[in-house]
Write a structure and sequence with these properties.
Elements (H helix, E strand, L loop, with lengths): L5 E11 L4 E11 L5 H14 L4 E3 L11 E4 L5 E7 L4 H10 E8 L4 H12 L5 E5 L2 H9 L4 E9 L2 E6 L2 E5 L2 E2 L2
Parallel strand pairs: 1-8, 5-6, 6-7
Antiparallel strand pairs: 1-2, 3-4, 4-5, 7-11, 8-9, 9-10
């Protein structure tokens, strides 16, 4: 018998001072049986960092043809393809061929090795951004994960203040590409 996804709900308030974007989102996220709470929280963080009107969760782990998050225009054209973790070079090339821009958030301890292997090949792309969140910060967010969450995210001057209910975290993601 196949395991079912667990449903998580997050009331997300985003205050992005850099992009002048302020909005509330009600997210319903299906956590695939193979997905960790750390990865689920990285989906929420990535959503907050790239928040826009047309951004929505895709099927990600459940469908290898889709990213973790994406934004599409009204005609169905993919405007932004968002990946988590360490996608391989072929997946990133495919994403760039299908969308206007590709954005990656990597967060585990092996991300440095992954990036060093692909850096030369990826540096030629002007439609690709890669961001890294230190694994200790990602693990801290995972410890705060709950089935129903009130999440407040403020982005300002390269720092992110991420609050889950009463737990507050200061995150320092770094742009690698």
């Amino acid at each position: 018998m196949a395991l079912k996804s667990s449903i998580y709900k997050a009331q997300l308030n985003v205050a992005d001072m850099e992009r002048n974007h302020f909005a509330d989102y009600s997210l319903t996220l299906a956590r695939h049986p193979s997905e960790t709470e750390e990865r689920l929280m990285m989906r929420i963080l990535a959503f907050a960092m790239r928040a826009q009107e047309r951004l929505e969760p895709a099927r990600g782990l459940s469908d290898v043809e889709e990213p973790d998050l994406w934004a599409k225009d009204y005609g169905g054209q993919i405007l932004e393809w968002i990946e988590l973790g360490q996608p391989d070079e072929k997946r990133l090339q495919k994403a760039q061929s299908k969308s206007d821009s590709v954005w990656v958030l990597c967060y585990n301890h092996a991300a440095h090795v992954w990036f060093k292997q692909l850096e030369g090949k990826l540096a030629r792309s002007d439609r690709l951004q890669i961001w890294h969140l230190p694994s200790q910060q990602a693990q801290s967010l995972a410890a705060a994960c709950q089935r129903n969450m009130q999440v407040q995210v403020t982005l300002q001057e390269g720092s992110i203040w991420f609050t889950v209910d009463q737990q507050a975290f200061e995150l320092q993601p770094a742009r690698w590409l």
